[in-house]
Amino acid sequence: MTFVDEVKNAVTPRAALLVIGVLALQLLFIASYIGALHNPKPTDVPFGVVAPQQVSARLVTELKNLPGDPLDPRTVTDAATARQKILDREIDGALIVNPRGTTDAVLVASGGGTVLATSLTKIIKEVEFTQHRTARAVDVAPASDQDFDGLSSFYLAVGWCVGGYLCASILAISAGSRPANRQRAVIRTGVMALYSIAGGIGGAIIIGPILGALPGSFWGMSGLGALTVFAVGMITLALEALTGIVGIGLAVLIVVIAGNPSAGGAFPLPMLPDFWRAIGPALPPGASTWTARSIAYFRGNAVTGPLLVLSAWAVVGTVITLLMAMRRKPDEAEATAEAATGPGAGTGDAGSTLA
What we know:
With 355 residues, the protein is α/β, with parallel strands linked by helices. The chain has 14 helices and 5 strands. The radius of gyration is 25 Å and the shape is elongated.
């Protein structure tokens, strides 16, 4: 047998295509992470201004015209309203002008990301210096001292997402990427649901009672975790049902390559480039990170949209998984079952049950 024949036997066309696909994922990973995170800077950050009427409009215009457009300022009636808008996550900070002195306050929320809070404080202090005024930072939603740079919510969400697609991938690898019939698709969905509940509660226990990294409702975090794991797991199962083993790579593309750098974890959304800022809230890691921070630091405010995003991924994944199983022909289903349980399958009876 010639060397060329050996190569053909060692690397089949299917394997070659999969290797090329892995290379593409690798390069996309590098491009996505470096593209999103190599030069973070605040852009159009929602920002409130509380000032006497005679200076409010001028100050808003001045902040709006700062080089690089770091702020998207708007007038707010009073300090209490500004504080509430920050807690409602409508704005990320606010300048409170003191009409009877030269020391103003800049309200920030490090629970939403300490890097952004620090950047806003620096920007306002530089503006105030040109006006011969000073500003002191007031943190209205401070991050826990066990939550360095406000990253715990992000890492928690990433862990849940990883658990979701790994569980779905194991179900596929162990007993065929496409469920043999509707009953087995339902079984996989049930396994995914039970795993999601365990993963959600487990993550909440680690982040709260064990490490004390995040405050907030334990059961709120547990529910968020279960929904996150289930959403990612079911969309992975759906992609596997549609495309076979390639679905695992597509799940990595959505969740890891596109989702993680755009989640607002390492740097909050207002500090990311436009593309990543746009896609982040629509993907599971971003929706989960935002909700975890809201539960921990913002009294559970502004979570309806992200929870709907996660629910949509879960519903779409479940529906596609079940529909694809129902569309399979009886002879195709029988062949799949035999392949999963027959000699050389390497899965055994347990794998067949999971299928």
